[in-house]
Design goal:
With about 550 residues, the protein is α/β, with parallel strands linked by helices. The protein has helices at about 10-35, 45-65, 75-90, 90-110, 115-130, 140-155, 160-175, 180, 185-190, 195-210, 255-265, 290-300, 330-340, 355-365, 380-395, 405-415, 420-435, 475-485, 505-515, and strands spanning about 245-250, 265-275, 280-285, 300-310, 320-330, 345, 370-375, 395-400, 435-445, 450, 455, 460-465, 465-470, 495-500, 520-530, 535-540.
């Protein structure tokens, strides 16, 4: 077994993020099940998972930028990336608080990762998280964070990094077990705080990353009966705010101070985290428009997410349709195509994949008893699974078809028949998607190792089923090579989706190439429009 590190370094932080993501993935549903505070909407585990997923992705991006070097990235760069990723990807009340905890730790660990700095980082994290919450409540994740910091701070000067992490984890576990005695709504439901449970999981991953051993953690306390409905104040839940509003905000410190005051008057559960001009704002309100307008007055809000806590109250009174399809599409040009096929669409913007809340909203907009969900991106599998699970709790029957590319989604839509049974329709759509190989052309941004060899900046890459298979000098030549490789295994239909910058002449050239080499293969061509890769290829 490798020796535990004497100090937290960039590699250990990367391992921490990866382990935390894996652990939250395993425990997501269990944590969702004990979510009764501040609102019993059953999504705390999912929100924490998505927050850490964003942090881990930011860390991986730093390592990817250094992949051609001989040394790992600097610790400061990695912990700051982790904090920034959590900030921009924070979901829900607990996810926003976790983002501030990681930001507080990063501010200290950027200087050094030894045992003393870890003690100070945990203390700073707990203090900054409390300052971010407008009205801190004991028995929540804040209490668990404070207990972890206190236990770490009580270790003696000779304690090493593992000792400090172990103490923090043990202190957090003890505090978590007592949260039902600290917060009445938890005691009535017979559960520990869901956010606190998630933090214990994250601290357990930290201990594993620095200590080389997986900790034995407490199982979440699942209610024996239906969970009680909670609100931020323990008043009648029907009187609680109707909406959760979250957005990123570019604004000055002074403007954010005024924003806090205004939002605190509008609603409750106010959490504002961040700094250095970028903030994540979370609040529960009855007037979602006023909360967004307050952000506009303070600065520039974006990635605005509004969730209704009782969506069934605002659903139309008309009888829901029997079945619908919800599809994520990568470009404006495909929106119309999928809509014509009867799908409710969600646009995936470059660098801004849709959150689970956006997919849930689309499922609600579809207004159907049965929904087929097409994520059309391998990176969205966990997000789509979380959205499907949330929709099922609202009484919608959801089938998630794990489409990994838009062309697979197009193939599934082509065989969709709402008149047949749900199971038969899902089987047919799944089979069509699975029988479709997919490829994409991209332009290399830098020199890099690939599965097809070393590429240089500006090279055209042909990715088949997600792996680089061809490295070429130009789009047309690379596309022809990719098509030949894909059709060598047979095929009946080629689908081409051209990006905005690709000329019509390219489509004609590739269609002729297919016709000359494969007489029995048909070709269909679509325009993907803005925000689409240069070329998407599907072979059925």
């Amino acid at each position: 077994m490798p020796q535990p590190p004497e100090a937290l370094d960039a590699v250990a932080v990367r391992a921490w993020c990866s382990l935390a993501l894996e652990a939250l993935g395993r425990e997501r549903e269990a944590i969702d099940a004990i979510n009764v505070y501040p609102v019993a909407d059953g999504d705390t585990g999912t929100n924490l998972y998505l927050t850490v997923e964003s942090a881990a992705a930011a860390v991986e991006a730093v390592f990817a930028a250094h992949e051609t070097g001989t040394t790992a990235p600097a610790l400061a760069d990695v912990v700051r990336a982790m904090a920034h990723g959590a900030l921009i990807g924070a979901r829900g009340n607990s996810g926003t608080i976790l983002a501030q905890l990681l930001r507080g730790m990063a501010g200290v660990l950027a200087a050094a990762g030894d045992a003393d700095h870890l003690r100070r980082a945990l203390a700073e994290a707990a203090a900054s998280a409390r300052l971010a919450v407008a009205h801190p409540v004991e028995g929540t994740v804040l209490t668990v964070a404070s207990a972890a910091a206190e236990a770490a701070g009580a270790t003696d000067a000779a304690a090493d990094l593992t000792d400090v992490a172990d103490a923090a984890y043990a202190g957090a576990r003890t505090a978590l077990a007592h949260t039902p005695q600290r917060l009445a709504v938890l005691g009535r439901a017979g559960v520990v705080d869901a956010g606190g449970q998630g933090l214990v999981t994250v601290l357990g991953a930290l201990l594993e990353a620095v200590g080389g051993r997986a900790p034995a953690g407490p199982a979440p306390l699942v209610p024996a009966g239906p969970p009680l409905t909670g609100a931020c104040a323990e008043a009648d839940p029907e009187g609680g705010p109707a909406f959760e509003v979250i957005y990123l905000l570019e604004a000055s410190d002074d403007a954010v101070g005024r924003l806090r005051t205004r939002l605190d008057a509008l609603g409750d559960c106010l959490v504002v985290v961040g700094g250095d001009g970028l903030w994540n704002v979370h609040v529960h309100v009855d007037d979602a428009g006023a909360a967004v307008e307050a952000g506009v007055e303070a600065g520039r809000p974006h990635r605005i997410r509004i969730t209704h806590f009782a969506a069934d109250r605002i659903r139309a009174h008309r009888e829901p349709a029997q079945r619908a399809v919800v599809a994520v599409v990568p470009g404006d040009g495909l929106l119309g195509l999928c809509a014509e096929a009867g799908a409710t669409t969600v646009l995936a913007r470059p660098g801004e994949p849709p959150a689970s809340g956006e997919l849930v909203d689309a499922i609600r907009r579809a207004h159907a008893r049965e929904v087929v969900l097409l994520p059309n991106d391998a990176q969205l599998r966990h997000t789509a699974a979380a959205a499907a699970e949330q929709a099922r709790t609202e009484g919608v029957r959801v089938a998630l078809i794990p489409t990994r590319a838009a062309v697979q989604g197009i193939a599934a839509l082509a065989v969709h028949e709402p008149d047949r049974s749900f199971d038969e329709d899902v089987v047919a759509m799944t089979a069509a998607a699975g029988a479709t190989r997919y490829a994409e052309l991209a332009v290399a941004e830098r020199q890099s190792w690939t599965t097809a060899g070393i590429c240089q900046a500006g090279d055209v890459l042909g990715l088949i089923d997600g792996d680089v298979a061809v490295i070429g000098d130009d789009v047309s030549g690379t596309a022809r090579t990719v098509l030949d490789r894909m059709l060598s295994a047979g095929g009946e239909l080629v689908t081409l989706v051209l990006g905005e910058e690709m000329p019509d002449a390219l489509a004609a050239l590739l269609e002729e190439h297919v016709r000359e080499g494969h007489l029995a293969v048909d070709t269909v061509i679509y325009r993907g429009g803005p925000r689409t890769a240069p070329l998407l290829i599907g072979v059925e």
